[in-house]
Amino acid sequence: MGENSEQIGRYIEERRNRLNNNISELEDKLKDAVDWRVQVDERPMAMLGLAFGAGLLLSAIIGGPRRSTRRKPSSTSGSPGNYETEAGQSDFQGGADSNRRASSASRTLDNLKGALVGVAITKCAEFLEELLPGFTDQYHKTEARNSTNEPDSSSARVN
Fold first, then answer.
1. pTM listed for this prediction
2. Per-residue pLDDT tens for 65-83?
3. What are the residue ranges spanned by the domains of the chain?
4. What is the DSSP string of the chain?
5. pLDDT value at residue 10
6. What does the pLDDT look like over 9-54, one tens digit per residue?
7. CA pair distance 17, 39, nearest whole angstrom
8. Ramachandran sector of residue 23 (left: φ over 0; alpha: ψ -120 to 50; beta: rest)
């Protein structure tokens, strides 16, 4: 019986050591999974895209004043469309045509921002799914639940 109890004791000790090793290994993997430095080392382009997308998203959320070049009427010409920038360079603006070009450029920039944010969000979701299996399923369930809780805007009345 003494030999049996010693064998059982060694078996239990061996199992305990294996479990401790497995737990240590899991802790290391978890630390690596949430350590941004390790993620940057393993996936530099994905992290660069994520950082870029986060910056775009943050700038879209926070916003801020748009920079514009202030212009003053040129003193060299009485033409109403001739303007001079603060640096003293002459610049001809064609009124409505210039506004149309600015509007088109603004729409194009907005489209580019939207596309980049969409790609960044998609990459972020893919990264989270890889890091946390089942994330996408839970996200879709939450999205569906939230979409059913939103009030119908067509039935809302404004007094």
1. 0.33
2. 655 555 555 555 445 555 4
3. 1-34, 35-149
4. -HHHHHHHHHHHHHHHHHHHHHHHHHHHHHHHHH-HHHHHHH-HHHHHHHHHHHHHHHHHHH--PPP---EEE-SS---TTEEEETTS-EEE--THHHHHHHHHHHHHHHHHHHHHHHHHHHHHHHHHHHHSTTHHHHHHHHHHHHHHHSPPTTT----
5. 93
6. 999 999 999 999 999 999 988 888 888 888 888 888 888 888 888 8
7. 30
8. alpha
